[in-house]
Give the backbone structure.
Amino acid sequence: MITIQRTLQIAFAVMASLGTMLLGMGSDNVVLPIVAVFVAVTSVYFTDIVGWIRLNRTFASFAALLAVAIALTDFFQLQGERQLLAIAYLLIYLQIVVMYQQKDTRIYWQLFMLSLLQVVVAAALNFSAIFGLLLALYLVIALFVLSLFFLYRDAGELRAVNSFGASTNGSGQRDSGRRGVRTTKPLAQSWHEDLLNRRLVWRSIAESIVTVGLTLVFFLLLPRSGDLAMARRVTGQRMVGFTDTVRLGDLGNISDDYSSVMRVWFLDSDDQPFQLLRPPMFRGTVVNHYENSTWTLRFDPRSEGQVLSLKPLDASSGRAVRQTIHLEPQHEDTVCAVYPVYELSNNTPLLFDSRKQQLLRQRTRLSKIEMTVATTGFERNVQLDITPVDLVVERYRSQESELTQLPRVLSDGVDPLKKLKEAAAEVLADTDLAADDRIGRARALEQYLRDSGEFTYSLRTGRSDPDLDPVEDFIANNPSGHCEYFSSALTLMLRSQNIPARMVIGFNGGKWNSLGSYYQVRQLNAHSWVEVYLNDIPENHPFADSIGLPKPGWLRLDPTPTIAIEERDSNQLTLAERAREWMNYGEYLWSDYIVDLNARRQREGIYEPLSYTVDHVKALMSRDFWARGLPAAVRKAAEDGTLPYLGAWLAALLICALTLAVLLFRRLLRILPWPGNPWHWRRSKRSQRPATASVGFY
Amino acid sequence: MLFGRSIIVCREGWYYLLVLGFVVTGSFLREVNLLLVLAGMMFFPFLLNLRTVIISSRGLTVRRRIPDVVSAGETFHIDLALSKLPSRFWLGGGASWVIHAQDKIQPLAKKPEITVPPRLTFWRLAPGQREDQSYRCCLADRGRYELGPVTLSSGFPLGLVRAERRVKSADHLIVLPRLGQLTNAWRRLYQEVHQGSRANHHKHGVSQGEFHSLRDWRPGDSRRRIHWRTTARRGAPVVRQYEQNREQNLVLLIDAWLPDGVDPVTFEKVVSFASTVVTDICQRGGSHLYLGLATERPTVGGGPSSTGLMRELLESLAVLAPASVNHLAPLLTVVRETVPPAMTTVILSPRALDLAVLEREIHRQNDNGRSRFGRIVTISGDQEIGEYFQPDVPSAARSVRRQTEPQMSA
């Protein structure tokens, strides 16, 4: 049977590994967890079990001093948070030294403290939800280790106390001259083993659950004083495609990146979140100049460009909904949103760059920001395909030449987009659309790329002819590519037909999370599409009234085959997807209510609902509720057809109340000392049980 | 003190609190929420530990059971019965976990020299439950001891904080002196001082007088006295003991004066010698025995030899403390007034007695009328005592128990 000491050695090794793993996660160091696991396994086997490697105290002290010297050197050479990492590495070095020593009470306690300090440092460096999960696991293991260590320490003390006299009387002869107490009582280990086997693990788990629960209550209710939780350190990530230069082929590298970009809530006029019938498209940045396989943003240097505040929402803006965006820290200033965007309050941390035609964040890029803006881009839960142009904000008339730019004909007279232009002309030739039917002609080209079946969506891109322009190659030879190929092709085809167009880069859809009623947008949702400039939005547009005519606008076209998108964003959830949805919601809660909990969110998310619940309970306890409210609720449920649900709730409530009453009644019976009470504790079987005697040493 | 118990933060607990303080400080200074979470995850286990130890130490009662008689050097058991009262609270009731019971044994009438018996561990006691445990100990010195209070402590489950309660469960225990072996010289002396009455005695083979009792075999006993049937049943040699036909009365006086330069060990040897004589005579029976102690308040006790007398005399020897001055003369006065006349008197002293002074004193006592003292023998000093007595450990308590109660069995 495994002994307490062996269990303790293994448990300490697991705890130390996990602590280092948490630290490795915080410092983005992959080597640390591997080293930690290696050291833990080898120390258990070679140091604790076999005893081949056991550093003596002098050598261990020397190694520890060396580690301190290295860490101090790093500490004074590094700056800022890297100094914290130097301390963290020192803890790991010391842990390695300690683990290869022969374990006793002192060494075990040193190991515990080193591991705990590692987790403390890790908590200052790591903010991911997985860290939270591992922290809970660490808590279980740490409590188990502490309990086990207590028993081990206790057994050691017992051994020391109860060996009093025996050590000087090993011969077994009478110790006639010695003062004091002499005992030959053997150390009874059975209760330790019993406790270890039967109770300790479950007790540690139960204590961990209680601890986590109490910690959450304490943490959530502890009053916050400001918005400073946002100032945490983040490394930030790069939003794909949000540069002024997009080179074809880059997108394939990030297609499987599940990193979160933002969460977006759409709230109607009643503040109720809603889901769109089709995935939303969040516009980020635009590019308008194509040359040498590269899209860039060009604007007339003479044009007046400035960063403007958002236009406030007014009555002429049309029917608006709110979009609340929680944007993760990014390297870029660009903010993606459903356009057009209007300001709701003066402190919206957003600006609009009129030259780059994109939303910019005001605050530092390395912090998470939250914003709520209005948009009129929806009608009946559908995102409008035309975005009106605000001429005050968007100064596009002076840039219209850029919207029809095509690569120059080469010096040898070869047109790099010859096949593309021919294909566009051919497609339009097959239609009988009028030359001024800009929308019809644009949609025909869009359908050609998207629905003709000649082009397929693929993340694996490659050129069949390296000498050709990649878009020309895509149209002529290799009709397979991702969204950038499709949108590039459509933009250039439109321009070849003298239709002003630009390529837009943003995010398409995201995953609808029904638990939190938000769209989770990840890096893999990065998408590009096309916008066609319309001088006048046609009056026959289905949502012309919503848009508010007459005004120019942008017609959104997405030539990428929809099947590829739909496959990724289907809301028909399997069990695994449902689990992922839960995980995502957990990440959201962790991020917003643990890591970034601040005074405002605490007030809105905790205090106000709590106050509302208290009021609700008070209302439930009032006589008025039972006299009027409950019958009215039953009547209403009967009318709505939700009576079974209401009945189920009431039945569950009743069962809970009855169970509680029975438990209290039983408790009462046990303590009430009326004569003849057969349930009283003095008469119960337990108290009648004969005393158990522990006389194992007889 | 908290609710009648001491709450002690262990050394590990202080380290733990130090790290906790560091985390709390960091969480407020850096405003890192995760550090606050970590602080909570450290604080609440500490609080749970505190709650568990308080509940564990609540409602505990201790009852001690000690042997009636014990001797110095004899191993004996002390039983501790720990009971957990049922909780009368709606909340907060619960079992006691890993309770350590630490008894204390302290000699009275001497400088406090606390001895620490082994610690008993009761690993779980549910409300209303009782558990008995025993520890075995051996007290080296004779005397009166006080047992208790019992200290109950628990640090379960984390050992960061410990609750201690001292339960006043005081008992007193008299530890009888160690016994030794009387040498053949003593036996010869004993025969000699009673020679006058023995002259007319006819021997009847190995059996002298009527059968009295059985006792353990001792070196020097004749094999012909072995009671084979009982020996076979017990597995240890047992010999027959016969009632002496003629009384062999004795007055045993102990000089308790321990002047400078005399080894206290010699005094202990005197006490042990006297205890052995008392035990021997009382076990033989059929005679009168008086014991006089030359202490500040000289006392004499005795009568017909019996087990009761043996216990009484051994207990008085158990608590006999050395005197700072000589009280032998007052003792002789008390003896003259209380003891029947003309009894053989043996004076035991750790110091070298001045026989001339002693004879003058006895002569003075006898001079007032007819002779009160019979023959007087003095055995004094370590060397002379060694001739008649060898320290050994057949315990007095065992002898007493053998006469009064059945043998303890496992």
